[in-house]
Amino acid sequence: MPTIHLTETVRDALQGIPGFVPTEKKMAYTQSLLKVGFDCVDIGSFVSPKAVPQMADTEQVIHNLDFTESKSKMMVLVVNEKGAEKAAGIPQINRISFPYSVSPTFLYRNLKLNTSHALEIVRNISTAAYATRLDFIVYLSMGFGNPYGDAWNLDLLKDAVSDLYQLGIRIMPLSDILGEASPDRIFSVYNTLIPLYPDVEFGLHLHTKPSESYAKLDAAYSAGVRSFETVLNGLGGCPFAADEMVGNLSTQDFIMYCDTKQIPLTIDRTALEKSIEIAAGLLL
Fold this sequence. Notes:
By secondary structure, the chain is of the alpha/beta class.
């Protein structure tokens, strides 16, 4: 059975919490996650603290963590070359990500960029990332549809994937930030892309109501997706997507799905329970 790659997204959990979470709490939470055995931990971002004040202490958090016994890769999100350069100078970081979008409206809403400028930044970052030691992940937000009135169809999505592929991008998680994608749409998208680009890792970054997560996960898994991003307790959401945020796919719901389908996971469940307790305390 193909291996599941699981990323726990601390960044997405925290950026949706109103009120600044103290650095010490973030460190304790993230440190606990390093013991669980996730393939990757999305630890934070290097963006303007004015835009996302919750992430202002990402570098401080990283420098105060003990990575001795952890095999998890560390990832941060960046939105420009300056952020990528900063990440490259921190040895604990293995991966950087960039939030591209199929929707021009959301791309501008999220990053104040048009499509051509965003692709230029991706090109510049990819050149620098691959010249060093960093994996470069590019998200395709609005990968399953467009709620902003922009055109969306599979051909437009394939064009976006082609643009990124030509820039050397081989890890492209698709995201449904508003939780509007149906299981049928999810299956159709991956069933189209995965055969076209067998050397690309098309992951799933899902915002969803808990009651809808099983059917959506099943659609993605059935279409061949083996890379998933989750958040303990379904915390978080994108603060730039809509007036009301939709929570992330819960790590617990994902594990329940895998257990039901008898899909093996290499995680320490005792350590996971401790992390779940700490995650609950982030809102206090």
